[in-house]
Design brief:
Layout: E1 2-4, E2 7-16, E3 22-29, H1 34-37, E4 50-53, H2 60-69, E5 72-75, H3 89-92, H4 96-105, H5 109-112, H6 119-138, E6 143-144, E7 147-148
Parallel strand pairs: 4-5
Antiparallel strand pairs: 1-2, 2-3, 6-7
Organism: Rhodoplanes serenus
Pfam families: DDE_Tnp_1
GO molecular function, one term: transposase activity
């Protein structure tokens, strides 16, 4: 956990699938740059996939890494960029899946208030909440042949 004038800070980084379900979760200190911490998280992205990320992840190194894997990085470019890379605003709209995941994550009080002070325990809480979010998608409240499924 990082320290700032406000106290302990942490950033949660998440890689979600097309349904908004978490695939990779990571914690970094609050003062750490987002783009530098993303490199090891993105190893699961492969050929034919599209990475959608916000401006904090905009870097030539990230784009070259994705290109080497056969994936495309649809990252919103920084406004001060001289050589603006290809970017699709239409596809970028689907980045809201990760924002929706973070919204669901914040419904867990221990995570929203950052109750746990140790990074390993906090990451465990985040993963537990992510597991609950995964399980919600497989819950069924319908009746099948008279049996509640």
């Amino acid at each position: 956990m990082g320290r700032s004038r406000g106290g302990l800070t942490t950033k949660i980084h998440a890689l979600v699938d097309a349904n908004g379900l978490p695939v990779v979760l990571k914690l970094t200190e609050g003062q750490a740059h987002d783009g530098k911490s993303a490199a090891d998280m993105l190893s699961s992205i492969g050929r034919g996939q599209i990475l959608m990320a916000d401006r904090a992840y905009d870097s030539d190194a990230l784009r070259k890494s994705m290109e080497a894997r056969g994936a495309w990085a649809n990252v919103r470019p920084m406004p001060t960029r001289v050589n603006v890379p290809a970017f699709s605003p239409f596809l970028y709209r689907y980045r809201n899946h990760v924002e929706r995941f973070f919204n669901k994550l914040k419904h867990f009080r221990a995570i929203a208030t950052r109750y746990e002070k140790h990074a390993a325990n906090f990451l465990a809480l985040v993963k537990l909440a992510a597991t609950r979010i995964w399980l919600r998608t497989y819950e069924s409240v319908t009746y099948t042949n008279g049996v509640r499924g």
